[in-house]
Specification:
Two copies of one chain form a homodimer. With 409 residues, chain A is of the alpha+beta class. The first copy, chain A, has two domains: 148 residues, Creatine Amidinohydrolase, Chain A, domain 1, CATH 3.40.350.10; 255 residues, Creatinase/methionine aminopeptidase superfamily (Creatine Amidinohydrolase). β6 of chain A pairs antiparallel with β6 of chain B.
């Protein structure tokens, strides 16, 4: 949580953190600046101090809306730095950072750097800055970074934003269900009013339209996969596929707030018209594991144990899992869930090599058991996004029926 | 142009270039991989050799669609590297790059690195790689980079993609015009069918909807600004503003291909119902300069001279310009145009400190003169995207009328 930042900075032995880049589509900056619109800037937070936001002069008002102490980057006179360096853009940029660091008494100690930028620029700027300020240790964190650890638990404002995305998501899912059930079927496939077969590409187009209409983004695309593709967890579905009755459709939708904000993550599995026995049996296996896990998860417990438990439950039903066979392409082949926030996949993780990740109060995680049989042309996954409330209760942030069969005419 | 890459690599003294990151919303990677969908990977191109694309195993088919020689990143056994480094994700990543470089005989020489990544990760990975391979010079280019120079001219495939975006853009502009002219006006403002005033926020919502319907993205937003806001070039327009008759509306729209591809950039200025004399006069000044510049621009000529020429023409009309007064907030306050491609602003530039930028054959640039008088509540800008054809002709990539007045009921 944001309120843990000072403690986390101490744990990571960081005296300061620097976040750079735009406030849009750049989770580290957006984490601090919220919904303000800023095409570029820098934010520096020293341990036990409030952040300072460095802004470009045309974005003065937006920067002020952040509520942080602000500093105009124009005060560093880039035009003069460019002259001093004979037009060398890189050297002028390094000099500007050197001045910023010097002004804020950050010429020694450890500073963590975060934010999205061109890799070459980042490497050149921070290598150059290190030469200018040899006592300042510039730390790049991969994997288990301070920010990912902070983001792993959400404050109430963040939860409400994820909840609002959940409302949009389930509303669009409802529109898709209504759209599909209002079509006719001819010879076992859905057809549109003009008698042409309905294709998955058209369904996806409508999903994007309804998401846009709700003012949200769909940066990672949508999985709407039928039959064999539903049996392959990473297939997003073939635009040319027909909507055949009696086949599993995996509909996994994960839109985000406009500008690259908070995600929601949601999956239902549908069968149009009817479900053949083997599909119904597969669905019931997944549903029972979903319900069992939902009843068992407890605040503050270790996540990986629920992955183990899910494997155990599926194995009891007779399915192969990645626990019994790490290479299996059939049965249960992925992890139980993941944290959701400004990234679609964040902490905590439900995997055996993240043994310390817990369902801490404030976590927002997906629970998404699934079974896949690509050779038999079927797959089932059920997924909700769950808030681990401060009072220890588990709360699904957007309710939607779990039903398998969508009736058609 | 892509075909200039080997020559440019020689000019920049680079033996190889490395592009990293996803193929979506990452122009350096997309420049090479086109429309394939890849969540992450690396591309290495040695001088005078074809690129090699390193892919993640689940994206084998997408990688193959790039047409490049491909290499499975799984062959580098990250799982084993993680064990060797006792779970250190950063060290394992550095070791993998070291192996890749060694395999492809890139342990010495100069390699330029590009692509979007977390700044800390980039700094940590490439600093670490440099320690492992001390004879390999890792170059980060800011400003006038090899890739921006290559991208400054487009091949015919790129031009056709920008042209297709122009078609979508002008089609949506037409829908907006039809929508506005189909509303009634009451007491000098447009009202919707239920008698409520129409607000700019609603117009923008429709723009986003029509863009989404066309399957494109609008990552940078749209400028739809009326009155005083039209007089401020960087104002995107206030969602709560009414659509008053007789006021200038600057409508600047710059959508991109889905997944972060090629942009189009287009502006018209509209007056609903009628244009007051001072607005008509301002419009005619901008129109005449637009037409004059369009008639004067020549293939291979220097861009900055047209910025000077535009200032001269506006000054002859009696307007202040940034040439006569660099601090002016009135009159002509920005540059004449810019290159358009995978970035909304790229090379060539029409500014006095880019004296070498030319209208080389294959350039795609905007021409967008404008006049702004925020205190008088008006602004006018006209913008088209122009292809400098290999035969030396200038071609506007999407035609649309330049008319000022939109009639209303």
């Amino acid at each position: 949580m944001k309120s843990d930042l000072d403690q986390l900075m101490q744990d990571h032995n960081l005296d300061a953190i620097l976040i750079t880049g735009p406030a849009q589509h750049n989770p580290p900056m957006r984490y601090f600046t919220g919904t303000i619109h800023m095409t570029g800037g820098d934010l520096i937070k020293k341990r036990s101090a409030d952040p300072i936001l460095f802004y470009n002069p045309m974005e003065r008002d937006e920067a002020a809306n952040s509520g942080f102490e602000t500093k105009n980057l124009a005060d560093y006179r880039f035009d003069e730095l460019i002259k001093i360096t004979n037009g060398n853009f890189l050297e002028a940029t390094i000099l500007r950072y050197q001045k910023m660091m010097t002004d804020y008494d950050l010429t020694s100690g450890n500073i963590g750097v975060y934010g999205k930028m061109d890799v070459g620029s980042a490497y050149a700027i921070f290598s150059g800055l290190k030469e200018k300020l040899p006592n300042l240790e510039i730390i790049g964190q991969l994997g288990d970074s301070l920010l990912l650890q902070a983001m792993a638990t959400k404050d109430s404002d963040e939860v409400e934003r994820i909840r609002a995305m959940g409302k949009v998501t389930t509303s669009v899912v409802g529109k898709v269900a209504d759209f599909l059930t209002s079509q006719r079927s001819v010879n076992g496939v859905l057809v549109t009013s003009n008698g042409e077969p309905l294709l998955i590409g058209e369904v996806k187009r409508k999903i994007n339209l309804w998401l846009a209409e709700s003012g949200v983004e769909n940066p990672e695309g949508t999985i709407f996969a039928i039959g064999h593709d539903a049996g392959v967890p990473h297939s997003s579905g073939n635009a040319e596929d027909l909507l055949s009755l009696g086949q599993t459709i995996i509909f996994d939708i994960f839109p985000a707030e406009a500008g690259g904000g908070y995600f929601y993550d949601f999956t239902r599995t549908w069968c149009l018209g009817y479900a053949p026995d083997e599909v119904m049996a597969l669905y019931e296996d997944v549903l029972s594991v979903y319900q069992q896990i939902m009843s068992e998860i407890e605040v503050s417990s270790l996540c990986y144990q629920y992955q183990d438990r899910t494997c155990e439950l599926f194995e009891e039903q007779g399915h192969p899992t990645i626990k019994s066979n790490p290479q299996t392409q059939e049965g249960y082949v992925h992890s139980l869930g993941h944290g959701v926030g400004l990234y679609i996949h964040e902490y905590p993780r439900f995997i055996s090599n993240a043994k310390e990740d817990r369902l801490a109060p404030g976590s927002v995680v997906t629970i998404e058991p699934g079974l896949y049989y690509p050779e038999q042309g079927m797959g089932v996954r059920l997924e909700d996004t769950v808030w681990v409330r401060p009072d220890g209760e588990m709360e699904i942030l957007a309710d939607y029926p779990l039903d398998l069969v969508l009736p058609v005419k």
